[in-house]
């Protein structure tokens, strides 16, 4: 026995470039063109074919040659034609006709000219499809119709779920007459063809599959049978509806059309999509029951300009935003299919799944839908409203032509460090909590480039606290004791490895100096010349209490610490213990008498807190993890543009508009829609080189991909975006007007700026890796080795096998570095978010989204 798929593969392998497959409902025609098939006898040619396949197909004992091939052809209604195009023209002229795609089997057709109809002048069509039922497909379609109507669109719904049509029930339509059904459009009944208006959603109409009257029951069942055996009946009916809209027939003034499809391999899906191609909204569940990937791949290829997206229905409305490993595997498989559909022919690089993460959305179980009717938008969960808005944006639906009622709208140089960031400070819920003097937050955790130092600077400006240690970038910004201060370094060396004493002494010095930064700096400088015994006298909680007693009224201090990642001359192997000692001191303060007078706010890179003893209990209810939601991210994007004079000089009207919204932007509350509109005033709608929308690029290329394998929240990297805007501004200074294309920033300039920004961001990360990775005991050799280590990832494939990469890195260093140090270095980079294991296989790692470009790694599907 042989399967049809295997037979086709074997034939193509045995006769390269000589096999074409054509599907004409309901039969396959396999055309084999070759000089060896010169016999007039079909069976002699079939024997030659069988013998050739037998030469290759030796691994399967169940394959019996000619008998297996004949059985497969008969089983699958297939015909083999031996001959060239002349034979086809003379004897099989019906194959030359282009009848379009009529069935799922059309996916195997590589010999027909199945060009899709011209859709430029037609209203946009959107196809709602799922492998299985129970995935909220029809419910979401109806909610999306309400959303579109509220935006001012006129929306036509077509219930193409032939075997189980229910859209009229969801819309609250009690009676559907035969005139407004597919039965009438697909048959010559001599009746007028109409649309049933929705009584619950203005500007929404429905063409149902069948009428509600039972007198049409037998006709409906007959219609189901006819469309299964003659798919052109369906496609002709859809063509009629499309032409009525195009020609402006009265009652058909719609600008968006939504199709509700049957699930799985239903016969009706392909004829409808072939007649009116459009973007697909594909529904799934986190339980991985969406597993017919070849079918999904087929429907994604119907609309290359915007293939579609995925919506995962989550029954657990109380679940966290962190997805499971099982769902991540499903998401990756689905986004790989979207990557194939989006990738332009001849493109060198594919999109990796994490670059397309925005195209996989969640629709949560919503109690407002329990009454069976479609609720108003203000009654559904905020998370679902955001999903509707995101789907609208990703599908790139043009604004309606008529005026919209406002009441209905729902609303590689070193990069710029946080210490030097001159953009407006953009608040978020997280920053408001951190900058609240009365909050109990002690631990502010985040990855490199997520805004720690910028918030630290804002805390100083707002006098939230006093510096205990500032980042090294603050070295020339006032009288701050920073992490690279030579006197601070000297004191740490005096205490040797007794880091607890170091921290108690430092707190004592700050309390003694009070609010006077100059005096604090002077005390540190003087102390660096003292002996261990002299310093030890004031290195305890008791000495701090004595210093507090020197004030008439015991003063309360909030002390700010940042920059521990770059403590001068502190080996990576000692840094963890250095941090652990500070955490221990903070625990003593929080649980003792000092808690009345001393509060410490520690800004720390995420990986440095992992693995410390009892850390979960210590930081519970006292920590925040830096993350940016979509609104805060877009507000920061606008603020960065406003601060760049080189860009604003070419977009003065945009600058005026931004300034009008200054207060909203600073508070992080300018609505997403307005932010997007401003961004599209300077960025093109699409990036030609990558075939994705600019908004998708701006939202996803500057943030992590969420992952079940990450230990922490995915987040936006403001440092990377600021680098990007700075690079664009610098290129404008050189290119002038040549940097514009139709009044928008040039596509190539955008991508070039991103690559340079990523390189600058990596340069920052390298500086911290020097204090995190120990490839050599000598500091200067370690710096050189780390640079070489990073460069070795250029052109390296991601995802990659961990063990193979260890071997490659060992070869790069000619085995002069121990394997354990290489493994430790990779694990440290993973802890910092540079790499992460894949959900499918923990032995495979991949570069984090923002690091793939920085490391110049190449994505390759494995």
Description:
The protein is α/β, with parallel strands linked by helices and 862 residues long. The protein contains 34 helices and 25 strands. The chain has an eight-stranded mixed beta sheet, sandwiched between helices. Strands 13-14-15-12-16 form a five-stranded parallel beta sheet, sandwiched between helices. A three-stranded mixed beta sheet has the order 1-2-3. The chain is globular, with a radius of gyration of 33 Å. Mean pLDDT is 86; it is low at 402-416.
Determine the structural class based on helices, strands and strand pairing.
Answer: alpha/beta
In DSSP terms, counting alpha (H) and pi (I) runs of 4 or more, how many helices? 34
Q: What is the CATH-assigned architecture of the largest domain?
A: 3-Layer(aba) Sandwich
Low-confidence stretches: 402-416
Beta-strand residue fraction: 5-15%
Number of strands: 25
> Rg to the nearest angstrom?
33 Å
Q: How much is the average pLDDT?
A: 86
Tags for this model:
862 residues; alpha/beta; Rossmann fold; 25 strands; ATP hydrolysis activity; P-loop_NTPase
TL;DR of this structure?
The protein has 862 residues and is an alpha/beta fold. Residues 402-416 have low confidence and may be disordered.
Question: Secondary structure elements and their pairing?
Answer:
Blueprint: H1 4-14, E1 19-24, E2 27-32, H2 42-56, H3 66-75, E3 78-82, H4 85-91, E4 124-130, H5 137-150, E5 155-160, H6 167-170, H7 182-185, E6 196-197, E7 204-207, H8 217-229, H9 232-246, E8 256-261, H10 269-275, E9 279-284, H11 293-300, E10 308-314, H12 325-342, E11 360-364, H13 382-394, H14 429-434, E12 443-446, H15 452-461, E13 466-469, H16 486-494, H17 499-513, H18 517-527, H19 532-536, H20 541-549, E14 557-561, H21 572-591, E15 598-605, H22 615-619, E16 623-625, H23 630-642, H24 645-648, H25 652-660, H26 662-666, H27 672-679, E17 686-687, E18 692-693, H28 694-700, H29 718-735, E19 740-741, E20 744-745, H30 747-769, H31 779-791, E21 797-798, E22 800-801, H32 802-812, H33 819-831, E23 835-837, E24 844-847, H34 849-854, E25 858-859
Parallel strand pairs: 2-3, 4-8, 4-9, 5-7, 5-8, 9-10, 10-11, 12-15, 12-16, 13-14, 14-15, 21-25
Antiparallel strand pairs: 1-2, 6-7, 17-18, 19-20, 22-24, 23-24
């Amino acid at each position: 026995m042989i399967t049809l798929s295997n037979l086709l593969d074997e034939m193509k392998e045995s006769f390269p470039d000589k096999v074409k497959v054509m599907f004409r409902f309901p039969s396959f025609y396999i055309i084999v063109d070759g000089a060896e098939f010169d016999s007039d006898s079909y069976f002699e040619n079939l024997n030659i074919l069988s013998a050739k396949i037998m030469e290759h197909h030796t691994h399967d004992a169940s394959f019996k040659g000619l008998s297996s091939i004949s059985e497969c052809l008969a089983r699958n209604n297939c015909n083999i034609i031996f001959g060239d195009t002349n034979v086809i023209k003379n004897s099989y002229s019906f194959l030359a006709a282009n009848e379009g795609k009529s069935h799922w089997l059309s996916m195997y057709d590589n010999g027909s000219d199945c060009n899709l109809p011209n859709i430029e002048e037609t209203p946009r069509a959107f196809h709602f499809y799922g492998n299985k039922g129970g995935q909220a497909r029809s419910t979401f379609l109806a909610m999306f119709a309400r959303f579109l109507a509220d935006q001012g669109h006129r929306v036509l719904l077509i219930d193409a779920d032939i075997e189980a049509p229910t859209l009229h029930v969801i819309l609250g339509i009690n009676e559907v007459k035969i005139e407004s059904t597919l039965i009438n459009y697909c048959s010559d009944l001599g009746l007028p063809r109409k649309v049933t208006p929705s009584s619950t959603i203005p500007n929404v109409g429905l063409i149902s599959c069948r009428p509600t009257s039972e007198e049409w029951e037998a006709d409906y069942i007959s219609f189901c049978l006819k469309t299964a055996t003659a798919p052109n009946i369906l496609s002709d009916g859809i063509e009629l509806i499309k032409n009525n809209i195009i020609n402006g027939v009265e009652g058909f003034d719609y600008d968006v059309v939504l199709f509700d499809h049957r699930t799985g391999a239903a016969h009706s899906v392909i004829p409808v999509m072939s007649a009116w191609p459009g973007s697909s909204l594909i529904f799934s569940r986190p339980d991985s029951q969406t597993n017919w990937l070849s079918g999904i791949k087929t429907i994604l290829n119907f609309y290359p300009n915007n293939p579609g997206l995925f919506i995962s229905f989550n029954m657990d409305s109380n679940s966290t935003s962190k997805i499971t490993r099982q769902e991540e595997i499903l998401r990756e498989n689905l986004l790989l299919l979207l990557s194939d559909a989006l990738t332009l022919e001849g493109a060198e690089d594919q999109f990796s799944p994490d670059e397309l993460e925005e195209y996989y959305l969640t629709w949560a179980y919503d109690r407002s839908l329990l009454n069976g009717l479609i609720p108003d938008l203000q009654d559904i969960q905020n998370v679902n409203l955001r999903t509707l808005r995101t789907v609208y944006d990703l599908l790139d639906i043009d604004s309606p032509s008529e005026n919209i009622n406002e009441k209905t709208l729902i609303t590689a140089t070193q990069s710029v460090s946080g210490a030097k960031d001159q953009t407006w400070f953009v608040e978020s819920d997280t920053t408001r909590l951190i900058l609240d003097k009365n909050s109990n937050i002690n631990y502010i955790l985040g990855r490199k480039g997520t805004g720690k130092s910028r918030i630290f600077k804002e805390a100083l400006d707002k006098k939230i606290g006093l510096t205990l240690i500032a980042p090294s970038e603050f070295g020339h910004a006032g009288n701050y004791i920073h992490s690279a201060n030579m006197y601070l370094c000297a004191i740490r060396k005096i205490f040797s490895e007794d880091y607890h004493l170091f921290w108690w002494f430092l707190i004592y010095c700050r309390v003694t100096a009070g609010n006077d930064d100059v005096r604090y700096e002077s005390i540190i400088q003087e102390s660096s010349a003292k002996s261990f015994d002299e310093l030890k006298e004031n290195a305890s909680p008791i000495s701090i209490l004595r210093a507090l007693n020197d004030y008439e009224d015991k003063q309360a201090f909030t002390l700010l610490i940042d920059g521990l990642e770059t403590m001068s001359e502190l080996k990576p192997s000692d840094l963890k213990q250095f941090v652990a000692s500070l955490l221990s001191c903070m625990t003593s303060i929080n649980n003792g008498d000092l808690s009345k007078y001393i509060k410490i706010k520690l800004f720390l890179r995420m990986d440095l807190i992992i693995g410390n003893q009892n850390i979960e209990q210590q930081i519970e209810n006292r920590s925040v993890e830096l993350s940016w939601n979509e609104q805060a991210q877009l507000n920061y994007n606008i603020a960065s543009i406003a601060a760049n004079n080189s860009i604003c000089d070419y977009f003065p009207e945009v600058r005026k508009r931004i300034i009008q919204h200054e207060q909203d932007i600073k508070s992080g509350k300018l609505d997403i829609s307005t932010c997007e509109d401003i961004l599209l005033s300077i960025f093109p709608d699409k990036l030609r080189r990558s075939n994705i929308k600019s908004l998708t690029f701006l939202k996803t290329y500057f943030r992590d991909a969420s992952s079940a394998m990450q230990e922490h929240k995915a987040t936006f990297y403001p440092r990377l975006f600021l680098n990007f805007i700075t690079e664009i501004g610098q290129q404008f200074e050189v290119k002038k007007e040549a940097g514009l294309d139709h009044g928008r920033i040039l596509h190539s300039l955008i991508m070039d700026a991103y690559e340079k920004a990523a390189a600058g961001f990596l340069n920052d990360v390298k500086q911290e890796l020097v204090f995190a990775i120990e490839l050599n005991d000598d500091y200067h050799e370690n710096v050189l080795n780390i640079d070489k280590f990073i460069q070795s990832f250029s052109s390296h494939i991601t995802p990659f096998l961990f063990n193979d990469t260890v071997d490659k890195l060992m070869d790069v260093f000619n085995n002069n570095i121990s394997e354990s140090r290489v493994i430790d270095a990779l694990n440290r980079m993973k802890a910092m978010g540079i790499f992460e294991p894949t959900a499918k296989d923990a032995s495979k790692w991949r570069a984090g989204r923002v690091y793939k470009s920085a490391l110049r790694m190449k994505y390759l599907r494995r």
